[in-house]
Amino acid sequence: MTGPARSAPRLFGRRSWAEARRIADILRKETIGGALLLAGAALAMAWANSPWSGAYEEVRSFTFGPAWLHLNLDMATWAADGLLAIFFFVAGLELKREFVAGDLRQPRRAAVPVAAALGGVIVPATLYLLLTRNVDGAAAGWAIPTATDIAFALAVLAVIGRFLPAALRTFLLTLAVVDDLLAIVIIAVFYTSGLAPIPLLVALVPLAIFIVLVQRRLRSWWLLLPLAVTVWALVHASGVHATVAGVLLAFAVPVMRSRRASGQEAGPGLAEHFEHRFRPLSAGVAVPLFAFLSAGVHLGGLNGAVTALSDPVAMGIVAGLVIGKPIGIMVATWLVARFTRAHLDEGLSWVDVLGLSILAGIGFTVSLLIGELAFGAGGERGDHVKMAVLGGSVAAALLASVILRLRNRVYRRLHEAEAADQDRDNIPDVYQGHVALMDRRADHGNRAGRHHPAEHTTDHPADRGRVDHARHGQGNKPA
Predict the structure, then answer these.
(1) pLDDT at 446
(2) Residues 332-379: pLDDT tens digits?
(3) What positions belong to coiled-coil segments (predicted)?
């Protein structure tokens, strides 16, 4: 006797209940953070293009910090190196949870977002390099159009996509998690200059103490915070971008409650606790402040904006975000569906995937960071990069909004049809149609083989009533 056939894996399929609840909590916080991020960027742009633009530059260039530790930094640098270390700490916690205890621990589930994220890095980077191949020094910015700003994207999705399937939101979040991992690797490998090995080696000492303490499940902030700040300062002094320190500290935090626990006995560990504590700080304070201190650029009117966006570097960034990113994600996802047993989840369309792929072209926070690492925070080229990141991200958001709003209307009609209860019996008509279908299948089974006829009858009065209602109802099939 053969067992039941194993169903083919679905792209963007339903996640576990625990994972769904965790993702829903992240979505709520990141959506609020995205709104604050947009507010910070808008305020920066308005201030930088106002008669008081000089005051904005004074705020960005205000320096403070201990000079004897080489930490007498301006506000913009503190935002990029300090505040974003918190952002990458939370991203590192999320990464570790996904690959240790989340759905990404299963290779079959991890294949799709990993492939999509890789495609979303390779194609825009290649397109950027092709468009800037004749520009001296432009190759340094190849990674600018490869990032996805999850907070910005989720804020857009929250406004336009109330009825979109939860699977799409989950996939966008998972894609962004893998995208953050690739961004971390890119920053650590390609944007580290003047490496000083001694501070980096010394940083291993407080990092090791931090690891021992968190492995013992100690949560005392007066012990852990000084160690974390020391690791950050030493990594900053080594020449490696200081945000990498946040990732190293996050990877040290245990995910499971006990190493010996497994299966149902395995519970959340410090990673969940720290993520819960630091995510509001990251999404609500660190990222919006970075956007405020980094996004302000003087447009110089329409002519100035046109001149900036006609720079081949700016054109490469916009093309990478708006064209390269969705092509890379779409092609990678299609290849997974074409050459594996995976297929789209029922009720989803490739148009949905296209809209989501375009939305992933919003590369705000990390793109601005990489732009500063590649071309500096000031200067004409730096301003062109900022305008390109802003323009490309807004263009991707608008294009995705058009597609996803149309799809949202389709899913809204389906939602209304599935919730319809014309006979007012508190049972949606679509489920009554399902009961009628099951009744017809049962009748067919009775006629085909009468070994157990009692199993296919509907003798209970309530059951007969539901079936009678169903026979007169109409089912709804998703378009």
Answers:
(1) 55
(2) 999 988 888 766 666 678 898 899 999 999 988 889 999 999 998 778
(3) none
Domain assignment present for 287: yes
Task: Write the CB contacts of 404 (distance below 8 Å, at least 6 apart in sequence).
Answer: 157, 160, 161, 164, 352, 355, 356, 359
Contact indicator for 294, 373 with CB cutoff of 8 Å = no
E strand segments, 70-201: 73-74
What CATH number is given to the structural domain containing 185? 1.20.1530.10
Domain range for 443: 429-472
Does any domain span residue 212? Answer: no
Largest separation between any pair of C-alpha atoms in the chain: 90
Residue at which a domain ends, from 379, 397, 417? 417
Report the C-alpha gap between 44 and 59 in whole angstroms.
11
Residues of the chain with pLDDT under 50: 1-5, 17, 261-266, 451-479
pLDDT tens digit sequence for 259-292 = 554 444 345 578 888 988 888 888 888 989 998 9
Question: Total structural domains in the chain?
Answer: 2
Structure tokens at 226: 């000084």
Residue 198: inside a domain, yes or no? no
Residue 137 lies in a domain: yes
Residue 207: count of CB within 10 angstroms of its CB: 20
Q: How far apart are CA 299 and CA 250, in angstroms?
A: 38
Q: Around 85, how many Cα atoms within 13 Å sit in the side-chain half-sphere?
A: 22
Shared domain check, 389 and 250: yes
Which one, of 80, 111, 361, 112, lies nearest residue 241 by Cα? 80
Report which of 53, 475, 33, 66 is spatially closest to residue 291, judged by C-alpha positions. 33
Query: Are 271 and 326 in the same domain?
Result: yes
For helices 17-48 and 270-281, give the axis angle rounded to 10 degrees.
Answer: 30
